[in-house]
Design brief:
single chain, 9 strands, elongated
Length: about 180
């Protein structure tokens, strides 16, 4: 469980990274064309939670989000056993039906819960600037070995998404 949580936490922490963001700082340009396409995230709560996001992997893409930069993690099932899954590429969202890769072994571990809870604070930056959303995510992973179903283990962590979301309408931060 710890290895899975570390993988998810490290990747989600990168959400919103944009190679061109430093070029926008202090330039006085904060119009819609200057906003990072990577700042948005999709969160689905509950025991079978999901988080979908993107970050600039290619670098210098002139504010364009490429399909290869989309990623998501969720709890799914394989033959009735809970698993942690990851999806990347075109069409990636929490609503995607297929194309998910299983990260946990359904022959050894039953992932009972993957919880994702968003804690966000909205703040104005200053006159004439778009407001900002600062985001923390509480992640919870719970599971058991198939041969020890009465012994359930859980791990939780809180991560700070390093890239804040800047938008005139901050509700746009909550969808891909």
């Amino acid at each position: 469980l710890r290895a899975l949580m570390n993988l998810v936490a490290r990747d989600v922490r990168r959400a919103g990274y944009d190679d061109l963001s430093l070029e926008r700082v202090g330039t006085g340009t904060d119009g819609p064309a200057d906003l990072s396409p990577h700042a948005r995230m999709q969160i689905v709560g509950g025991d079978s939670g999901c988080v979908a996001f993107s970050y600039d992997r290619a670098g210098n893409t002139a504010g364009i989000r490429e399909d290869s930069e989309l990623r998501a993690f969720r709890r799914g099932t394989v033959s009735g056993i809970g698993v942690l899954q990851m999806r990347t590429g075109a069409g990636t969202s929490c609503d995607a039906g297929d194309g998910w890769d299983t990260l946990s072994d359904p022959n050894a571990v039953d992932i009972r819960r993957f919880g994702v809870v968003l804690s966000a604070v909205n703040a104005p930056i200053g006159p004439g600037s778009a407001p900002i959303r600062v985001r923390d995510l509480d992640l919870a992973l719970e599971g058991n070995l198939l041969n020890a179903q009465d012994t359930v283990r859980a791990i939780q962590t809180r991560i700070r998404v390093r890239a804040d979301c800047v938008r005139e309408d901050l509700t746009e931060c909550d969808s891909l």
